[in-house]
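Internal ticket #5521
Category: modeling
Description: The requester needs a full-assembly model to guide mutagenesis choices. All entity lines are attached below as received. Residue total reported by intake: 671.
Assigned to: D.W.
Attached entities:
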Amino acid sequence: MADPATMPLIAVDNLGVRLNTSRGPAQAVRGVSFSLKRGETLGLVGESGCGKSVTALSLMGLLPDSAVVSGSIRLDGSELVGLADADYCGLRGNRIGMIFQEPMTALNPMHTIGNQVAEPLRRHKKYSAAQARKEAIALLDRVGLPDPARRIDAYPHQFSGGQRQRVTIAMALACGPDLLIADEPTTALDVTIQGQILDLIADLVEERGMSMILISHDLGVIAENVHRMMVMYGGTVVESGPTDEVFRRMGHPYTQGLFRARPKLGARKGTRLKTISGTVPELADLPSGCTFSDRCPLVIDQCRAALPPMVEVGPGHGVRCIRTDVSMAERVGALIA
Amino acid sequence: MTAAPLLDVKDLEQRYTLPRESLFRPPGQVRALNGVSVQVASGKSLGVVGESGSGKSTFARLVMALERPTSGQVALLGRDLNHISTDELRRARRDFQMVFQDPYGSLDPRQTIARIVAEPLTVLEEADRTTFRGRVSTVLRQVGLRDADMDKYPHEFSGGQRQRIAIARALITQPKLIVADEPVSALDVSVQAQVLNLMQDLQEQFGLSYVLISHDLAVVDYLCDEVAVMYLGRIVEQGRPEDLFERCAHPYTRALLAAVPRVRAGSGRRRRGAQAIASQSAAATGCPYAARCPLADQHCREVLPELRKLGEAHLAACHKAEAVMALPHVAMEG
């Protein structure tokens, strides 16, 4: 085994996922590669149907049985693709924790929050009921749930949305996972609560030296919370790099389009938003060649011929576009570093 | 302003009774709205922002006369919507229509687009099928859809197109006011911009007024002439977007502004203060925001601040408004 300090915690190589949808088989994820060291954070950005959640679910081994996964996912050097379900159960909630988007559906309404937070501890760490309960109270206290000793026997419906999300965070953290996957953890929450939850996640990631994959459609959330980011569209990574680098000089027309389409504070009434024409395509009928070619303002015939390769445009900053000479001449990006 | 306002809301209060918890005590009440007064002039837009539980959706339902308020009045074009007969109200509905948040839940999956869009009209008018179809095709073109879409079903459309259909349905009666409850929050970012631009075009074209309910300050800033910030059933600050976002006078508005994630290279993590959540049911004295407010003192906890004038069209309910306005500016995006 290589030195654990330099070896990536998780290494994903050429990941592909094929799903059976109602419109026929669809390649939901194509050629996704990345690796994360301990303590590093990675953001995945994109709109609905771009493959970001499918990527996360394939790391968790939670894809439907009919899905075909190709490529490789290595956690500390051991292969996860094709792992038997029983072996995956030993990893999920133990070495990989996940926070889901909608806390009301992620929690079981029939069980007390105490039991739900204690469950992974009982299962993976073989704690006794009393030990697990004590640990659950400590976890709920850490995530900032008021008065956890008294509220541990309450049911999910007795909590507000922000409090429920704190409970699911406590569940994800119970066994001290090495990798935390947060799939749109704050989309269902108010903007002020969103800030608190993101702060909490950032503190915990730092405190426990975890790696994190944060999935969001909000460029602002990504800009403030992760070291590196990947922009996905149509199942492929169209741009990736250190967050600051990508925001300073956006290379892909899709990233630029997303950035320009956001309504910005301080943009007065009467200004027009720059839109991306068309809509997000169904995964079953993606265009050939570059997945963004149907909506791209810079498209040329060559774009439709083949999927463009990743082009290095800066230190660690790659763009999957053959027209970066034109797109990057416009210098779209957010202010100065 | 000389002309009478299009929408005139006065001292609106709405209370909901909670389920009874004890035989011997009266059931608790939720004060969803606590005396809200606001006016919207013809052709202008009002944005209502606030967190969940601030009463913004209750406000929308009362403006649409979908519920009767506990007290106060809602007047549209000078008519008090709660003191006219059901039949008159049905006919008055021609002038105000609603667009809902979820374009998947708000369109009947078993009806064709032509029937969905024509429905508000069929309740109001007697006419033959060709006339209706003619009207439907006009509004569909106004929202950027085609005649061929008339005989399709909702599942054949994407989220953004469905929201266009919902807007077409609201437009068909040629309303003066459209109440939109989070119209773009269920849409993808790239499509959100298309729908917002459409709403702006329609306003210019038909002189519509919008009451736009949103939790997204940037969306409100983009589309509205005036913004009201609500907290626990009260308007805590009201004014033009530039007043609110550049010279905000209420600590709650400031907290909302500061919480918006910014896209800026090298921004890194910004720390936010911890905030307690206040209760809606307690009939507490003093400023309802005092528990979360970093500036609150004894006076704030004892005396409820009234909305007071701070600028030409700028109101805020805070004892320390001047101090808040003097604080350094919350950074905007370039």
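Resolution: model delivered.
Comment from assignee: The mean pLDDT of chain A is 88.
Ticket closed.
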